[in-house]
Design brief:
6-stranded mixed beta sheet, single chain, alpha/beta, 255 residues, 10 helices
């Protein structure tokens, strides 16, 4: 694997995002993550999957590669990214996100898709897509369920980020610790999970998914349709992407 490191040890799968400098998620990287999750799903005794960033990378993830958000690759990009969340739902194993640095755009959505989130006190979370003339499909579904309708709408409609303390207060993260204590806190939680039955954990997670309403897979299909059939037909959506790649302010035409 070129963009991630994947290990299975002591009933835990670890997916380490390792695409320097900022773990920008391109199609190849997202497919590697999907492949790792498929392997985790085959491990009946596995009690958890951990997402983390490599030490040499400056962010948990700065989001999905904007250069692949163009007409030629938009379908493959959305499919590869959303397949990660479909795989997480099918797998139904407990997931941990260990966040040091920025988790923005698709990186923040990946955090939202996990069950337990441990963040360093220098972590930041945000959905800046609206500033590019688009919106975050997964966040539009998951964030209202996690942090409440009002703050989720504010995050997605303004694109303004949260610091670690505010993310903790809102319930987007479970724990905030100094960077040097991230692994210690992670191992503390994993040790609790290792004492439990793997299939019991899976059924409990499925029950929690049922309890929160319509499945993510089902709802995501509707939001994808809105994204591709309406949003991506707007001139402003294409202008926002072009402006980002050209490092200039977008000129909105409101059409």
């Amino acid at each position: 694997m070129q963009h991630i490191r994947f290990t299975i040890e002591d009933r835990v799968g670890r997916i380490t995002l390792a695409r320097a400098p900022l773990n920008v998620l391109n199609i190849a990287m997202m497919r590697e993550i999907g492949g790792a999750l498929d392997e985790c799903a085959r491990q009946r005794e596995m009690v958890a999957v951990v997402f983390e960033s490599a030490p040499e990378v400056r962010a948990f993830s700065a989001g999905v590669a904007v250069e692949e958000h163009v007409e030629e690759t938009i379908f493959q990009m959305l499919e590869s990214f959303h397949d990660i969340f479909r795989a997480l739902e099918r797998m139904a194993k407990p997931t941990l996100a260990v966040v040091d640095g920025a988790a923005l755009g698709g990186g923040c959505e990946l955090v939202a898709g996990c069950d337990i989130v441990i963040a360093s006190d220098r972590a930041r979370f945000g959905q800046p897509e609206i500033k590019l003339g688009v919106f975050p499909p997964v966040a539009a579904i998951l964030l209202p369920r996690i942090i409440g309708e009002r703050r989720a709408r504010e995050m997605c409609l303004t694109g303004e980020p949260l610091d670690a303390a505010e993310a903790l207060r809102l319930g987007l993260v479970n724990y905030v610790v100094p960077p040097a204590q991230l692994e210690q806190k992670t191992q503390e939680i994993l040790s609790r999970l290792r004492e439990l039955s793997a299939p019991a954990l899976e059924t409990a997670r499925r029950a929690l998914d049922i309890g929160r309403g319509p499945s993510l897979t089902e709802t995501l299909a509707e939001v994808e349709k809105l994204y591709l059939d309406e949003l991506m037909k707007l001139e402003d959506a294409h202008e926002g992407i072009r402006a980002f790649m050209e490092k200039r302010k977008p000129i909105w035409r409101n059409r």
